[in-house]
Write a structure and sequence with these properties.
alpha/beta, 2 domains, six-stranded parallel β-sheet
Length: about 300
């Protein structure tokens, strides 16, 4: 019989110490770890994503890391399915679960859920694939039947255009009407969320030190390898840390300016993460890193 497990989430801005805290807590509460990080999900993007080291990954089983190639598409749907798989593994093994990472949008999606899309038969699927060969024509058609929904989607966003077409072909409705009639259902409920509080100056200093460390670990070689193997086209190649290195490789900036740009843009990302975490979640327990482990263990006992 599946064991009842406990779950918690640790959130916070980049470079706040989430991964280290999750590993410490996981060892004490017998838990597996699920990463919610939009870069760590990719293989070969190791230094830029500041993944836990191989040693750290070996200390506690991690999921959501090194799942996809950098040129594969990653979406909330994929993450929610990954969460369900990991939850089943935890129940099978009698382990608790810690969800940790900087992409808190995925956590919010778990809590709020996603609307299901209509099922399609083989013939309808094949017909849809033919239509998608002309993406612009598909987009314009969908816009004509549901401007409310499509105006928020780029004409070049093949994934979301396809999803909208699936809804129309499968239901005969525009996406807006479909989602109104099929509201999302939460994937997870009653989740304890712990947020790492960190002063802006302290965080900025950590970010600068991390950037210098990344350079010493081989940041330039990693990005060169990624560009040679996958080109600059994949969505993952537009991430903070990669874009700035590519500018340096194009001789647009000096190495010092490249590092400063990475630090600045990472700090801006951290600020957005802090704002998101503060405004999008309820009943969050927030505390400085040095206090949060004790708080979690008290709440969890």
């Amino acid at each position: 019989m599946d064991a009842e497990i406990k779950q918690l989430a640790i959130i916070g801005p980049t470079a706040s110490g989430k991964s280290d805290l999750a590993i410490k807590v996981a060892k004490k509460i017998d838990a597996y770890i699920l990463s919610i990080d939009s870069l760590s999900i990719y293989k070969e993007i190791d230094i830029v994503s500041a993944k836990p080291s191989k040693k750290e990954l070996s200390e506690v089983p991690h999921f959501g890391i090194d799942v996809l190639a950098p040129d594969e598409y990653f979406s909330v749907d994929i993450f929610i399915n990954l969460y369900k798989e990991v939850l089943s593994i935890c129940k099978r093994d009698g382990k608790n679960l810690i969800i940790v990472g900087g992409t808190a949008f995925y956590l919010k999606s778990l809590l709020e859920g996603l609307s299901e899309v209509p099922k399609m038969g083989f013939e309808a699927t094949e017909n849809m694939k033919k239509k998608l060969l002309d993406l612009e024509k598909c987009y314009n058609f969908l816009y004509s039947i549901d401007a409310e929904y499509m105006r928020n989607i780029s004409k070049n966003d093949s994934y979301r255009v396809e999803k909208a077409l699936v809804i129309y072909e499968g239901s005969g409705m525009g996406p807006s009407e479909w989602f109104r009639l099929n509201p999302p259902k939460p994937t997870i409920e009653n989740l304890s969320i712990y947020n790492i509080e960190v002063e802006r100056d302290v965080l900025r200093d950590r970010i600068q030190k991390r950037c210098a460390k990344m350079l010493g670990m081989g940041l330039l070689d990693e990005v060169c390898h990624l560009e040679r193997k996958y080109t600059r086209a994949p969505h993952s190649m537009g991430s903070v840390g990669i874009v700035e290195v590519l500018e340096y490789l194009d001789a647009k900036v000096t190495k010092e300016q490249m590092l400063q740009n990475i630090s600045t843009h990472t700090a801006q990302l951290a600020k957005r993460q802090q704002t998101f975490n503060k405004t999008q979640f309820k009943d969050v327990v927030s505390a400085p890193l040095e206090e949060l482990e004790k708080i979690i263990l008290i709440h969890f006992s």
